[in-house]
Design a protein that fits this description.
Blueprint (H helix, E strand, L loop, with lengths): L2 H7 L6 E6 L4 E8 L7 H7 L5 H12 L2 H37 L1
Antiparallel strand pairs: 1-2
C-alpha cells in the first residue's frame, strides 16, 4: 500500500507534500498539508539524463498500474490549489485596502 493510500484510509493520518518546481527540478519549500504530492523521481531522472533501460521499464510499469493518471490528477489539483491560494492572498490584500479606505 502506498503512503498516499495509507493516509487517505487511516484516521488521524494526513497526506502532505512540499511543492516542487518541475522546471528547475528544485523544491519551493511550500508545505501543503492535506493534499498528496506527486512523485517526480522518473521525470527528474529523465531530465538529468539518467534515463536508462531500467528507467524506461519503471515508467512503463508506473503507467500500467495507472499511477501516471494519478500523478497527472495530483499535478492538476496542486495547480488549482496554487491558483486558489493566490486568489485568497489577493482578496486579503484588497480587503485591507477597502477597510483602510472605509475608515477615512
Amino acid at each position: 500500500m502506498s503512503s498516499k493510500t495509507y493516509a487517505y484510509q487511516t484516521e488521524g493520518v494526513e497526506n502532505g507534500h512540499v511543492e516542487f518546481d518541475e522546471r528547475t527540478l528544485r523544491p519551493t519549500y511550500r508545505l501543503h498539508i492535506g493534499v498528496a504530492g506527486g512523485s517526480h523521481a522518473l521525470s527528474i531522472a529523465a531530465r538529468l539524463g539518467v534515463a536508462t533501460r531500467g528507467g524506461d521499464l519503471a515508467r512503463k510499469q508506473w503507467e500500467l498500474n495507472g499511477r501516471s493518471a494519478m500523478e497527472d490528477m495530483l499535478r492538476e489539483l496542486n495547480q488549482e490549489l496554487r491558483k486558489t491560494q493566490e486568489r485568497e492572498r489577493a482578496l486579503k490584500k484588497n480587503k485591507k485596502k477597502f477597510v483602510a479606505c472605509a475608515r477615512k
